[in-house]
Design brief:
This protein is 22% helix and 27% strand. It has 572 residues and is an alpha+beta fold. Among the domains are: 108-208 and 300-315, Immunoglobulin-like (Sandwich); 354-569, SGNH hydrolase (Rossmann fold), CATH 3.40.50. A seven-stranded antiparallel sheet has the order 4-15-16-14-13-17-26, with no helix packed on it. Strands 23-24-25-22-27-28-29 form a seven-stranded mixed sheet, covered by helices on one side. Strands 6, 8, 9, 12, 18 and 19 form a six-stranded mixed sheet that branches. A hairpin with a 4-residue loop joins strand 24 and strand 25. Belongs to the NXPE family. InterPro entries: Ig-like_fold, Ig_E-set, NXPE4_C, NXPH/NXPE.
Length: 572
């Protein structure tokens, strides 16, 4: 099949005479026209299109989908994209370092036990502790026989909680790689506090996750829907590389012209590659052995260790203080260095330690902050929760019916009196979703490339949850294209606010474990480390309170995440 397609140019004329246009190929014409119509129809009741043709030689056009043989597609790396990443991201071995687990020949009883592992204060107990001080503890990991472990690699989560004050913060867990761990907690509020430690995964379970993550090409697959001119349909398996489509026949390759992202589908038996019209989730693939499943069992996953430290009392440094250890912090703006921890909860309000975060408890405070702004959210469903929170919180922010698949978008809400537009759309494949039109799946790089930017433009990116089912190189390549697009956007309009939402806690399986999410967040941090962007640390915001983990956290946490976003939009 030829890569060349007949070109077409599209000019739209609004009712007031304003025109807008974009070059497009016939396979993209439908989604572009739909997107443009949806975007403007609520403002202008009449939209007219004129379709004109030019000679092929004068029209820039993307390559068409084409069948490729397996041998021609063994390597899907894109060196130019990887070269655009910071050096530390290209070196995945260094960036994703985690202590190795010695071979135990499948002996479950030799794995770390949440019931047998213990922790205690590092020093003598005190009657009270000073605000702004630190509490330290030593954790000793033991196996199911009660024997101390001699190597590290367990994923523990430590928290300092203040139930009476609705307070909490994430503790720092330092792996000494000899079976012991140093726990450290800053004392940031006055009053009662207590330590809680959970074993998320034993080092042996982490070994399983790491082996599958690095060695398996994919742990899920997807369905591609092809439709012919007479309505005939075929469904095939699609995935991130030809081998994962499960076919020995040629495959169809789809390349995003803006980012270089690749997607592959088994070639239909009767229909051409260009007839791909739909996408949906496929299967979760069987990738574990019975021994693996025992180590990842819910009986030993995300379990609280026996209480090792009695509740402590934190005293205020001087009477009359607020009872919070909040030093002078700068207003929230992009480019701030990360702090550890990034913040803490008190009275169910998140206080950032890197900047003077604000609360926006009323409708008027939110409207006053967002007035005149266009917010573009691109990512997964945990970011869609931000869109939904604002839609539900602000009654005058009206959702527009774009006749799109809700799960993937695009979604839009508008507030006409304050001139606010709020967009959300899912990132492109790999995307686990209900059946959705392929034309609606735009790459993040493609969307960013279409933004002019400016002081009234806010871009929020939230990726990660749909990439834990593939090797880290897949996410690194995706980040390469997105980082290049963010860098270009900030270069042409530095006043654009770009916010990166880190992935949050929630999943506990081989397909989406917290350990995998932690590695994804390392890649996210490294990819954007040298760009002037802001971060919302959803990982710590979802792991600091005594509430059950949920990939879709509750309104309390989502509201605090949105407040932090608004703190960057309106720092003062």
């Amino acid at each position: 099949m030829s890569d060349r397609q007949p070109g077409a140019g599209k000019i739209g004329l609004l009712a007031n005479g304003t025109s807008f246009g974009e070059w497009t190929a016939p396979t993209q014409k439908k989604v572009r026209e739909t997107q443009t119509t949806d975007r403007f129809s609520f403002l202008y009741p009449q939209v007219l299109y004129f379709q004109m043709s030019w000679p092929d030689s004068t029209v820039p056009r993307p390559p068409a989908p084409r069948p490729v043989s397996r041998s021609a597609s063994e390597s899907t790396e894109s060196p130019s994209l990887l070269d655009s990443l910071p050096q530390e991201l290209a070196n995945l071995t260094h960036l994703l370092y985690w202590p190795l687990t010695p071979e135990d020949e499948g002996d479950f009883l030799a794995s770390t036990s949440p019931q047998a592992s213990t922790y205690h204060l590092r020093g003598p107990a005190q009657t009270s502790y000073a605000l702004r001080g630190y509490l330290e503890a030593i954790l000793i990991a033991r196996d199911h026989r009660g024997r101390p472990k001699t190597h590290g690699g367990d994923l523990f989560r430590a928290q300092l909680l203040g139930p009476d004050l609705k307070a909490g913060l994430p503790g720092d867990v330092q792996d000494l790689e000899n079976g012991t761990y140093l726990l450290s907690f800053p004392l940031l509020w006055a009053g009662k506090a207590q330590v809680q430690v959970r074993l998320i995964h034993s080092s042996e379970a982490v070994g399983v996750l790491r082996r599958i993550w690095r060695e398996k090409r994919a742990t899920v697959d997807f369905v591609g829907y092809f439709r012919g001119p007479t309505g005939t349909e075929e469904t095939v398996i699609c995935n991130v590389d030809p081998q994962s489509t499960g076919t020995r026949r040629p495959t169809c390759q789809y390349r995003d012209v803006d980012s270089g992202e690749l997607w592959f589908c088994a070639q239909p038996s009767t229909l051409p590659c260009s007839s791909l019209v739909g996408h949906s989730s496929g299967r979760y693939l069987k990738v574990t052995t019975p021994q693996d499943e025992a180590l990842l069992s819910w009986k030993v996953t995300d379990k609280v260790l026996p209480q090792g430290i009695s509740p402590i009392q934190v005293r205020m440094a001087a009477p009359g203080n607020s009872g919070l250890a909040l030093s002078a912090r700068p207003p929230c703006h992009p480019g701030l260095p990360a702090t550890k921890p990034s913040g803490f909860y008190h009275q169910e309000v998140w206080h950032s330690l890197s900047c003077s975060s604000r609360s926006f408890p009323t409708v008027d405070s939110i409207l006053g902050c967002l007035a005149g702004h266009v917010v573009h959210m691109m990512g997964d469903s945990t970011l869609r929760q931000w869109w939904e929170y604002l839609r539900d919180k602000v009654p005058s922010l009206k959702p527009m019916d774009l006749h799109a698949t809700y799960q993937t978008g695009p979604l839009m809400a508008v507030e006409t009196t304050r001139n606010i537009v709020l967009h959300w759309r899912a990132h492109s494949w790999p995307l686990r979703s209900l059946r959705t039109p392929v034309a609606s799946l735009h790459s993040v790089a493609r969307e960013l490339g279409g933004l002019a930017g400016g002081p009234h433009t806010v871009v929020v990116l939230g990726l990660g949850a749909h990439f834990t089912t593939f090797p880290p190189s897949i996410f690194a390549r995706r980040l390469a294209g997105i980082r290049a697009a963010v860098a270009a956007l900030l270069a042409r309009e530095p006043r654009t606010l770009v916010v990166i939402k880190l992935a949050n806690t929630g999943y506990k399986s081989v397909y989406g474990s917290d350990w995998l999410t932690l590695q994804v967040n390392r890649l996210l941090r490294a990819a954007f480390a040298d760009l002037r962007v802001a971060f919302v640390d959803a990982w710590e915001m979802t792991s600091s309170l005594a509430v059950p983990d949920n990939i879709h956290p509750g309104r309390l946490i989502v509201g605090n995440e949105v407040d932090l976003l608004l703190s960057f939009v309106c720092p003062t």
